[in-house]
Amino acid sequence: MEWRSDVGGTARCGTDARGGTVGARSGRDARGPLVGLLIAALVSVACAVGGVAEPEGERPAPGRQTAAPDPSTTRADSTTSVAEFQQDVADAQAIAERYWAAQFKASGQRFRPVRQIVPYQRAGQVSCGGQALPRNNAVYCSQGDFIAYDVTWSVAAFRQVGDAFVFYLLGHEYAHGIQVRLGIRSTFTIQQELQADCMAGAYLGDSVRSGALTLAEGDLDEFREGLAAVGDDPDQPWFAEGSHGTAEQRTESFFRGYERSLDACDLS
Questions:
Q1: Which of 7, 80, 123, 184 has its CA 20 to 30 A from that of 72?
Q2: Closest to 225 in 3D by CA, of 156, 152, 159, 168
Q3: From CA 244, how far away is CA 232, in angstroms rounded?
């Protein structure tokens, strides 16, 4: 996949990164199967570069925890370096901010980026509302308005999957911040998560349609494979706290947003 902005310059780290050639660099266009794309099982995951803080806020959005990917497994495109991870993370943050700023401007609203994105390395290093965040996880903390993620786990997943992992999951996670900004409240977790899947699909689909993102041949099929791998266990009640939806529901929600944009995501 090749990620491009619609203006000149190069996106850099930080919440004020703007414009430029985003993401793929020489030798990184080829993409293998993305079955591991959603290794995180869409646990409200996102990534960015920055120092570790310990912000306080309300409890993290319910999500699932998964074992860390095997760091010895590396993609055939040699996506391995922490520097590449950091650059992709910063670029993903920049393009998400640009996308949502444009959506808010079009509707006559003022956009406020997510306040902080925080990597952490050990359980309890970051807390949200007094609740320590575990390893192998990431959350959006709404009251503190920050995203936090286990950097060791994220880099391992990045090495297995590639930069699509960062861009897709940032899109899903950033959607939770947008839900808060729009005052959207859900009775059940599954409603919140499927809507975020739809919003992530819209973010990617609109980026493709605008020319900000170019997908390589087969990428859509790979997204389908990844989405199919992350549904809830068939025995998980849909109304249980932390439910995200079946593989079929998640795939349908994502591609509904991808094909029809935000109008399909019931943001009213």
A1: 123
A2: 168
A3: 6
